[in-house]
Amino acid sequence: MTVLDFSARHPALLSPTAEFDQVQAEWESRVVCVSKLSSQSIEEMTNRIHSPIPILRIFDEAKALSFYVEWLNFKIDWQHRFDKHLPLYLQISRESCILHLSEHHGDACPGSALRVPVGNVDELYRELKGRPYKGYFPEVKATPWGSRDMSILDPFGNRIVFTTDAESN
């Protein structure tokens, strides 16, 4: 059991008085409660790696919103500008897929690529086909490695590959 020494922070508690003993006993009981958590659960809380959030470079807010929000059906979670005439940075999401879009030079390179796992790529294909977008005609293709992929280029040259393992379909 670890006992915390508060004497450096509380000089008035340097002498062993009844007040000090009471404070120390209270803190020891709190430490014992905390130590009852397994070291594994503490490690899981602190060392857990979460899904990455890709940043995609955009150059035109209207085109980005038309493509990502209106056609791909993402929603805007939040957006930020340092000033009304400065570049936009925003977070969009659809279910558990989170993307950041940035007009800031240096945040990302145009022409990036990312793979987005989906439950059923054929259902997504049918959804997008029912809502045509400016000459985009995505196709679902079987890959040699066993997935079914639908590759789409956004208006800024970023490639988004929606993918489903063949076993999942």
TrEMBL record:
Coiled coil: none
Pfam families, per database record: Glyoxalase_7 (PF19581)
The VOC domain, residue ranges: 48-165
Matching PROSITE patterns: VOC
Sorted UniProt keywords: Antibiotic resistance
Superkingdom per UniProt: Bacteria
InterPro entries linked: Bleomycin-R, Glyas_Bleomycin-R_OHBP_Dase, VOC_core
Family named by the database record: Belongs to the bleomycin resistance protein family.
Protein name, per record: Bleomycin resistance protein
